Amino acid sequence: MNITVTVNGMQHSADVEPRLLLVDFIRTNLGLTGTHIGCDTTNCGVCTVLIDGTPVKTCTMFAVQANGRSLMTVEGLKQNGELSAMQQAFRDNHGLQCGFCTPAMLLVGTALIEENPDPTEDEIRWAISGNLCRCTGYTNIVKSIEAAAKTTREGASS
Amino acid sequence: MYPSKFDYLAPETLEEALTVLAERGDEVKILAGGQSLIPMMKLRLAEPSALLDVNRIPGLDTLSRSNGALHFGSLVRHNDVVKSETANANHTVASAAPWIADPIVRNLGTVAGSLAHHDPEGDWASVMLACGAELVLTSSTGERVVGIDDFLVDMFTTSCQPNEMVTEVRVPAHSASGGGNYQKLERKVGDYATVGVATSLELDETGNIASAGIALTSVYAHNLKVTEAEQSLIGQTPSDDLFAEAGRIASQACSPASDSRGSATYKRHIVHVFTTRGLAKSLEIAQGGQS
Predict the structure, then answer these.
(1) Whole-number Å distance between alpha carbons of B18 and B228
(2) CA angle B276, B278, B279 (to 5 degrees)
(3) What pLDDT does residue B245 have?
């Protein structure tokens, strides 16, 4: 089946088998390997991308379902060659160790502060509760998202 | 993990979808959120020859309130319920929604799809049993309305026929003197309930209990409506002792299995505690407290 999907602002068309998982379309067909595959069972959340701004686990969606939709992967976060506020905050706050969960955490954090520019710690922990991190104990991830929310609010008001 | 091959059909009108179901409903699975169906297909526990993706049909994503009920279209996602002010018209529904799966799965998974899938440890079925929900089943020849008790037949089995689709879930709204609650114990976000208890109360003008709903998750072969516990409350003046007795009845009616989530004795104890606590919370709302 022919599908057309916009990924990070670029339109891609491909002829795919209906059972091709969206995560494999992103990684194999498009070569965007920043989106990871972890559990392959909707538990760990490392395959999360934004579809029309909403976080979705792409191991549990077929590529054909994304036909005509707009996706953002971690590769789409940088702006004019610079790290986004969320990426910069993760760097500044040591918000990652091995980095495997990080692309998904960045995207979930980005979607959260888009919807809720000043989230509480509880709201951040709630928002990332569908994403597993086995290294950090989450503390620095939460700090990073708090920091990104702050710089984004300050940027918007300056 | 990859599913078996299937045809993918994505109609843009309900009529087209119902025609497909009329012609080949036996071999087709309807794809709404897919958050239970796709994992089952990847495990090859489900091998439909075709998927009927209904996500491109307009008008199925509405959550509205009219005629004393909440109306969920086929494509209302769990997170739509979490974010909806309208959903607060039924307190059991509103308190259960944030406990369904995890925040990302809630962005795709649907209430109607969850009921149609009928995982015997699903949370929504208990909510619907406690609240007396109805489902609208539509086929190319018309529609029929089925009570939740008649809809849920057995695990992964409902009375929805191969040519039919769940086009609406109707849940009675609570009155100003009604309240409800969902209590869920889970090991981690996104896990099945270790124990879940849905409660719903309506008070009469004297403050006595006019109607009551209690249903349990994950402590029986399927979601269990505890009629005997409900009956013990009708016409009674609410009290801690009354609710504790209903909790005791519920804990005796269930039949939990000892597994990695806890022993049967432990789960039975939680049913007792959660039923008592859920009824107290429902009463607090019914008497004008905070939801």
Answers:
(1) 40
(2) 65
(3) 98
**In angstroms, rounded to a whole number, what is the distance separating the alpha carbons of residues B158 and B109?**
18
Strands B195-203 and B28-31: unpaired
Calculate ∠ Cα B100-B106-B107, nearest 5°. 170
Amino acid at B228: E
> Among A3, A111, A108, A110, which residue's Cα sits nearest to residue A61?
A3
Strand order in the sheet with B7-9: B7-9, B50-53, B28-31
CB contact under 8 A, A65 and B104: no
| A43 contact residues in B (CB cutoff 8 A) | 190
Q: Which residues of B fall within a CB distance of 8 Å from A48? A: 104
Task: Spell out the residues 6+ positions from residue A154 whose beta carbon is closer than 8 angstroms to its own.
Answer: none
For A11-49, the pLDDT digits (tens) are 999 999 999 999 999 999 999 999 999 999 999 999 999
Strands B7-9 and B50-53: parallel
Closest to A71 (Cα-Cα) out of A54, A57, A48, A50: A50
Cβ–Cβ under 8 Å, residues B251 and B228 = no
Q: With beta carbons less than 8 A apart as the criterion, state whether B199 and B275 touch.
A: yes
Note whether B187 and B261 are within 8 A (CB). yes
Mutate one of B4, B51, B83, B104 to test the A interface: name it (highest A CB count within 10 A): B104
Give residue B236's identity as a one-letter amino acid code: Q
- Contact assessment for residue B70 and residue B89, using Cβ atoms and an 8 Å cutoff: yes
CB A35 within 8 A of CB A72: no
Tokens representing residue B152 in the block: 């849920």
Q: Structure pTM?
A: 0.96
Reported ipTM: 0.96
